[in-house]
Write the structure tokens for this entry.
Amino acid sequence: MSTKIIQHDINLEPFMSKSPDFNRKSILMQTERSFKSEIINIITLTALEKLFHIRISDHFERENFSFLPGQFVMLHLPGCGEVPISISSSVSNKEYIELCIRKVGKVTGMIHRLEPGAIVGIRGPFGTHFPVQKMTGCDVLLIAGGLGIAPLRSPIYWINEHRSKYRDISIMYGARDPDQVLFDYQFEEWKKIYGLKLLTIVQNAGKNWKGRVGLITDLFKEITIDPENTFAIVCGPPVMFKFVCAHLSDVGIPRHRMFVSLERRMHCGMGKCCRCNVGSTFTCLDGPIFDYWTVMNLKEAI
Ligand SMILES: Cc1cc2nc3c(=O)[nH]c(=O)nc-3n(C[C@H](O)[C@H](O)[C@H](O)COP(=O)(O)OP(=O)(O)OC[C@H]3O[C@@H](n4cnc5c(N)ncnc54)[C@H](O)[C@@H]3O)c2cc1C
Ligand code: FES
């Protein structure tokens, strides 16, 4: 039985200077190129995650590289392989992009061994983005579990840079253990964003953890949601966004106003290899950002 896709128009935002349209031919032409790039800084976040600052070497290519919150790149390590990684920085940072990478296997393991000065390749940007423009005039809930905070940084920067266009902003972040909490060094900075509420929680408290203990859904007790005027961005493992989106749905937020990132194994990033399919959908082209209504209508998406 073929899968019915209800396509949301998140790529039809008129304001975008460079539309990541659904014209796949143009995407292919644009994304087969690999930009020679240099790792200029590495920040160790936890035992498994590092934040890499990566600068496209050619001045002209760097100036012209643009992306939108939620998009990803293919990071190529010569002689080793290539991995899809969400861009974790501000769209207005034209000097370098930030990629938060968890060491899980062959390529990410090798990337973790690199030092500043190492040369890598960047293809992209790829995929759909969070429709941040559509969210103007509304409350925005940014909800992350674990490594899901990495793709959320880009919309957080965006909202901060366009703060007057949004109403209340809440960031809800849950991690398994305190030593897995990412970007805690930025929390004070985020709390200073006007009208922003930051709530963090861990599942297993250690001796030194003084914050909340429990599941991310426990944080809903602490916020008031205006379902008529709220958008939600949810990033994390499918089991987490399933529960979170169910709760958001229960309080009345329509599913087409919740956005999630569907991560599948990817190889080409541009609709050629069929590694990332969910039904007839290519998560590299039609995603990774989908509204939850679409996800619910995709067989075997979660
Ligand atoms: C759109 C997108 C954005 C991503 N963003 C990030 C990011 O910001 N930071 C980050 O650290 N990782 C991110 N990932 C996951 C990352 O691409 C994989 O962890 C990476 O490809 C693993 O490569 P490897 O060679 O190190 O591991 P492998 O040796 O290939 O595999 C090691 C283990 O990881 C599992 N694995 C590999 N790829 C995936 C995947 N895509 N999803 C789930 N499990 C996988 C394998 O099944 C295996 O168990 C993203 C993936 C996608 C599709
Ligand atoms: S990653 Fe090759 S088709 Fe999507």
